[in-house]
């Protein structure tokens, strides 16, 4: 039986393009700009036909400046609107998007090449739902985010694979939270963003709240570098994400990155095979495979390998590739010639390296940017094709023996965006989900999205979430931050401070240091260890009295500490929250027994008053109690997306965390960072204050008597800059909190690009560690965890479970 063509009528979309003279320009302060003298244009093309749809304006620095200025001018009033007012605007946008849904869908397909079936039934409804969902958040912001405020102006850069949907994912939460926006679409796909700008006018959105700058990557770079931007949100390739992290390091701009993936699609031998095949069609061939979370690595259990691959090949034969405007087409065109060449090259190379290729013969139209659905077998997990994001309809197939094997292969990439697990054994599925390093896990389903469920990556797939309550935090900062002022450089261990504090290693009067050598060592793997370099540092009080000596740690000590932490991390993460809480209580109990001793040490070390020293220890004990209490309460959520099932949003530990502590209230700040990190199940490598480390080194004995498993807390003393550098560059460290000077913060952010570790830097702003509002709370818990969303469909009865 042959399918008859069922083409969508594109006349209304073409009329819309004609009305604009085929010109697509920036939208700034409520108006489409008229380009100045000698503007540069580049073509907008339909990748399915090569036909020119119009031309896109290459914005200039002047345009970006104007857009940022307009966004800045509008921001205060926008944020000051009552939630209900912002909600009304977002709701109006939703309704208008629904009204123009067909036009959006046709424009998207013309511009991007994706099948009309997908733009009509998936992209546009999902984008609309995103605004709908966020209208609700705008409304309840004050109740749900007390103590938080918007960053200000958000610079947003999006890719070409879901032009309208990515716009919605970026713009809706930004506007709901009171930020204003400067958005740059990808150079290949501009049309639906233009229509969206028109809708903003129609909805009466205040001028300057949403601004659009058209252009290529250079325009993106202008946004990244712009001083007037407070928050950057990027979706795209890991390479450009890395570049943006580097370029914005030290600028103080908040950053979220949604990057690439190489997501495993795991099929066990007890799976519902037909459903798993159907799910895979969606996982790898939806949107021509140009999906960041595409299930591009099929991991299939050895015992069903042959039969599964056979079925999959048969199913693939039925896919139709062709004119994306045809409603019967499954795969349309890839976005442009560059992407087509990239896919072709990667597949050719894989075949040369030994992969066996399976494609549908003569599947593609002879003209246009088409690539056939492709299965590659005889692929090893470490092969380039199984490691690199292809971003095309190309599936690599790998077999596995058992559950352990599946987890090991699934995690054997630098990415961690999504994963799918097919098995009828729910016990195994729910055991697999936490074991896989990915921000989203779909059980017996794939490519599920909903605005109420967060989406985002682990590891080099980026950080920050879009959707869900966690996605809102990406656009908010604690209000107390704007009240902090910069600490004196001496206190913050900056480069300047290091010069001023050269006395640390100089001669000082020996105060009451005992004659017997009591040089504190490092604490690694649960043991006190002499520093590798065998050097020590004198610790001198502000009044110039030498109060003790500590080991001067070096790169090797940090590497040993990271190794110990890595060894302990998995076990500690698996310990029950109750167990972790118990250990934190023990630590507090044992510290309390020695409170006077610690207070005396703090006083001698920092020259503070006895009362201040006593208070510091008391608050440290309180803080340990506080986080002991939190261990089993920072719980995550159960979402109810529109499917028969639930989505479990789990707060998981990040892994190995580096903690570089400030000099202010040195013992209290040290405890304030270590306690939330370990309470949430992370193992850590801690650098205590370089100036005042002695209370932290006394703390070893408390740890030794409190049942803390070896390697969960590792402490290395020494020069802050040297130790920070090694931690920041170490691929075994997953997150780094740096409380120090702004130059150090800039360094840390730039160095974090090696493995895209999550960083939290305070840019030299002095926190008062005695104030609970600044020094403890959910902000710390959130920074010590990452949300994994696990989608669990359920139901057996054909009546949709409605009969009882
Ligand atoms: P990019 O990561 O280059 O593009 C994403 C966005 O970033 C675009 O708007 C782009 O602008 C912009 N951009 C480019 N350079 C800079 C810069 N220096 N500073 C700021 N913004 C910049 O993806 P590509 O489109 O080039 O695709 C390349 C590969 O990336 C693909 O083959 C695919 O593998 C992967 N990719 C992954 C995506 C994901 O979601 N994981 C999405 C898109 C691509 P412009 O396009 O206008 O030049």
What does this protein structure show overall?
It is a single chain. The protein is an alpha/beta fold. The chain has three domains: 10-259 and 473-478, Aldehyde Dehydrogenase, Chain A, domain 1; 264-421, 3-Layer(aba) Sandwich (Aldehyde Dehydrogenase, Chain A, domain 2); 520-635 and 652-784, Aldehyde Dehydrogenase, Chain A, domain 1 (3-Layer(aba) Sandwich). The protein is built from 27 helices and 33 strands. It has a ten-stranded mixed sheet, with helices on both faces. A six-stranded mixed sheet has the order 9-8-7-10-11-19, with helices on both faces. Strands 30-29-28-31-32 form a five-stranded parallel sheet, with helices on both faces. Strand 28, helix 22 (666-679) and strand 29 form a beta-alpha-beta unit. Helix 19 runs antiparallel to helix 21 (610-630) and helix 24 runs parallel beside helix 25 (742-751). It is globular. The two termini are 41 Å apart. The structure holds NADPH dihydro-nicotinamide-adenine-dinucleotide phosphate. NADPH dihydro-nicotinamide-adenine-dinucleotide phosphate binds at residues 157-161, 184, 186-187, 216-217, 220-221, 224, 235-237, 240, 243-244, 259-260, 292, 339, 342, 389, 391. NADPH dihydro-nicotinamide-adenine-dinucleotide phosphate binds next to helix 8, helix 9 and helix 12. This is Aldehyde dehydrogenase domain protein. Residues 38-477, 537-759 form the Aldehyde dehydrogenase domain. GO terms for molecular function: oxidoreductase activity, acting on the aldehyde or oxo group of donors, NAD or NADP as acceptor.
